[in-house]
């Protein structure tokens, strides 16, 4: 059984979207529900791990026996991850981190000006959280990323695996509405740094989480 597979292991997971402020009442975000990351945290705890879940804003309940750290922006998520993930046994980046924040965010609510028909937001790059952690001198033992793609899934996933220095990448096709974002099921292809490829059939995110954790922790 997998019941004690992660006993004594420290697992850190990022999940959900990030929210990037435009002004005090507006923000940029994406469609991530957090379900996959929460399912991984729940299963890892059931398998005996000490689990920290760094979560963007989602409506999901905290899984039993999981330490949850709430964050809003990508930059906050990066700080929380660098505090808790270094030297962990397993780090999984399941969050849909915004690639950019608003460089000209306003501290007061933006007012429509008469005569102005537009409003230009300037976007600046966010830190790549998983790439930083995977290149750190206190790198976790195993680092796993997700690649949510709408086309050329295999090509982009393998590129990310290398570029971000990951051990595993879990690729899914978010152009399909029956799996991926906000759905209860997922179907993924997993690529390993040594060229391994595993096609996992469509199943619930909690079943899939158990299968993925078993795969990552095997030997
Ligand atoms: O480059 P892309 O966003 O598609 O990469 C997805 C993977 O990288 C996910 O594991 C995601 O959590 C992670 N990521 C991150 N920080 C970012 C962007 C993505 O940790 N700024």
From TrEMBL:
The keyword Cell wall biogenesis/degradation does not apply. Pathway: Cofactor biosynthesis; coenzyme A biosynthesis; CoA from (R)-pantothenate: step 3/5; Cofactor biosynthesis; coenzyme A biosynthesis; CoA from (R)-pantothenate: step 2/5. Its EC number is 4.1.1.36, 6.3.2.5. One of its GO terms (molecular function) is phosphopantothenoylcysteine decarboxylase activity. The keyword Zinc does not apply. Keywords: Decarboxylase, Flavoprotein, FMN, Ligase, Lyase, Magnesium, Metal-binding, Multifunctional enzyme. It catalyses: N-[(R)-4-phosphopantothenoyl]-L-cysteine + H(+) = (R)-4'-phosphopantetheine + CO2; (R)-4'-phosphopantothenate + L-cysteine + CTP = N-[(R)-4-phosphopantothenoyl]-L-cysteine + CMP + diphosphate + H(+). Its cofactor is FMN; Mg(2+). CTP binds at residues 99, 109, 127-130, 146, 160, 164. Residues 11-219 are annotated as: Phosphopantothenate--cysteine ligase. Residues 6-215 form the DNA/pantothenate metabolism flavoprotein C-terminal domain. Binds 1 FMN per subunit. Catalyzes two sequential steps in the biosynthesis of coenzyme A. In the first step cysteine is conjugated to 4'-phosphopantothenate to form 4-phosphopantothenoylcysteine. In the second step the latter compound is decarboxylated to form 4'-phosphopantotheine. Catalyzes two steps in the biosynthesis of coenzyme A. In the first step cysteine is conjugated to 4'-phosphopantothenate to form 4-phosphopantothenoylcysteine, in the latter compound is decarboxylated to form 4'-phosphopantotheine. In the N-terminal section; belongs to the HFCD (homo-oligomeric flavin containing Cys decarboxylase) superfamily. This is Coenzyme A biosynthesis bifunctional protein CoaBC. It comes from Salinispirillum marinum. The gene is coaBC.
């Amino acid at each position: 059984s997998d019941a004690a597979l992660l006993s004594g292991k420290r697992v850190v997971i990022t999940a959900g979207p990030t929210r990037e402020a435009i002004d005090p009442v507006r923000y940029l975000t994406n469609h991530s529900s957090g379900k996959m990351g929460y399912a991984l945290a729940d299963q890892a705890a059931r398998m005996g791990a000490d689990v920290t879940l760094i979560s963007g804003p989602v409506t999901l309940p905290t899984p039993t026996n999981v330490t949850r750290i709430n964050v809003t922006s990508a930059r906050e998520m990066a700080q929380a991850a660098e505090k808790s993930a270094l030297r962990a046994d397993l780090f999984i980046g399941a969050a849909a981190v915004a690639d950019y924040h608003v460089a000209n965010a306003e501290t007061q609510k933006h007012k429509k000006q008469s005569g102005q028909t537009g409003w230009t937001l300037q976007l600046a790059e966010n830190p790549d959280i998983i790439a930083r952690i995977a290149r750190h001198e206190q790198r976790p033992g195993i680092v796993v990323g997700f690649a949510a793609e709408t086309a050329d899934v295999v090509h982009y996933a393998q590129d990310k695996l290398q570029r971000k220095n990951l051990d595993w990448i879990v690729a899914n096709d978010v152009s399909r509405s029956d799996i991926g974002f906000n759905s209860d099921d997922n179907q993924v292809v997993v690529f390993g740094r040594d060229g391994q490829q595993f096609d996992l059939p469509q199943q619930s995110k909690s079943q899939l989480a158990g299968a993925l954790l078993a795969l990552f922790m095997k030997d």
